[in-house]
Amino acid sequence: MSATDLAARIDRKSLAALRVREETAFAARTPKSRAWLEAARASMPNGVPVAWMAGLYRHNSIVAAGGEGAFFRDIDGNRYCDFNVCDLAMTMGYGPQPIVAAVSRAVANGAHFLLAVEDTRSVTEELARRVGLPCWQFTLSASAANTEVMRIARFITGRTKILIFDGQYHGHIDESLVTKRGNDTVPIQLGLSARTARDSIIVPFNDLAAAEAALKSHEIALVITEPALTNCLLVEPEPGYLEGLRALSQRYGALLCLDEAHTFQFAYGGLTGSRKLECDFVTLGKGLGTGISFALYGMTRAIADVMEKHLDSDIGLDTGSKGLATGGTTYGSAIAVAAAKAALEQVLTPENYERVGHLGNALADGLETVFKKHGLDWRSFRMGPRAGYCMKPDLPTNAAEASESMDIEMIDTRRVFMANRAVWDAVVSAGPQVSFAHNAGDIARYVTLADAFLGEIVR
């Protein structure tokens, strides 16, 4: 049975009627949020400080008032069990005591000095041990980390082009906000450089032949990929794919970066460390799930030696070169170091990863039981704490196949249906994510609501 046939099991009239009903109910539950956002438009576009806070939700947005553990509440007093976890930036839950205590001490002692603090070594040495790359640098976001990795790779190789994969997301930067149009690579959003877009080459994930064809040009400075695609629901690497990509990058003189901004939350040491993958760079982001804005990237010793020889410095401005274009005034702050150290030592432990992995499997198993109950030959995505709705009998191997399960109307309606029943579901491109604050009761509640939702729309 094709994906189209499986999707046909959804009664579109019932789905449309359910969406109207649920959005009406949601509006009635959130009048203070609606009024606040409307008033806030006088000082902020869409009434929000960042456009995503309006654009990620096709139903009415809300205003948060606070949170604790796996739950947050809005200014209307509604409480939500969070399975979006701020798109993995809040995987430790709200108000985790190790992070609260560490960051509070850092603020009181001096938030930033534009100098290293003693605890920085504890963080970088622990990441080296877990991930397998010896040297690390801080940035403020994974977007900035990936930007610096691209610059270093271009300098080392003397090349300009970047190889990326269909379905990727490596941050809001010109090189990755692109798509294929015929034989060209073009910007996918407004305000981006068409010239920069041409430096990005896009091929399908899990296709080594396509990657080799691009690398044979000897124009590729950097191959960058998530070890599993996470922004088109979830696409896992086929056995040997990432190892093959490493071998190809070495054969043709390109560097390889594994972007673990999302997947570091999936396994102890990320997928790089847990699967002992080899690469030249690893990028981490989302504040490691603490909610604090910081990111890091790791590199080999050989690349670190290049950075040391080409230091960006204000000394000797008449030399004609200021070194590698890396760094930022607020990077590597005492707050970021404190949050990272507390996270690694007290939250991101082997025992906690094992616990959320079990909960993630319970969520995926529960969803597949519900699918079977409703006569749907669907699968659940699963990787550590991540689960989701695959509207096909076979899991996808690339972004094109994954897109067949990105039924926007169904996902949007499910989100507002869940919100009216005290669960905040994932954004369209992701899937429900178990946090370190969730428990078995939260998982059971999500599965019960998924059952009820499908009962409303499946023929």
TrEMBL record:
Its cofactor is pyridoxal 5'-phosphate. The lineage of its organism: Bacteria, Pseudomonadati, Pseudomonadota, Alphaproteobacteria, Rhodospirillales. This is Aminotransferase class III-fold pyridoxal phosphate-dependent enzyme. InterPro entries: Aminotrans_3 (IPR005814), PyrdxlP-dep_Trfase (IPR015424), PyrdxlP-dep_Trfase_major (IPR015421), PyrdxlP-dep_Trfase_small (IPR015422). It comes from Dongia sedimenti. Pfam families: Aminotran_3 (PF00202). GO terms for molecular function: transaminase activity. Belongs to the class-III pyridoxal-phosphate-dependent aminotransferase family. It comes from the Bacteria. Keywords: Aminotransferase, Pyridoxal phosphate, Transferase.
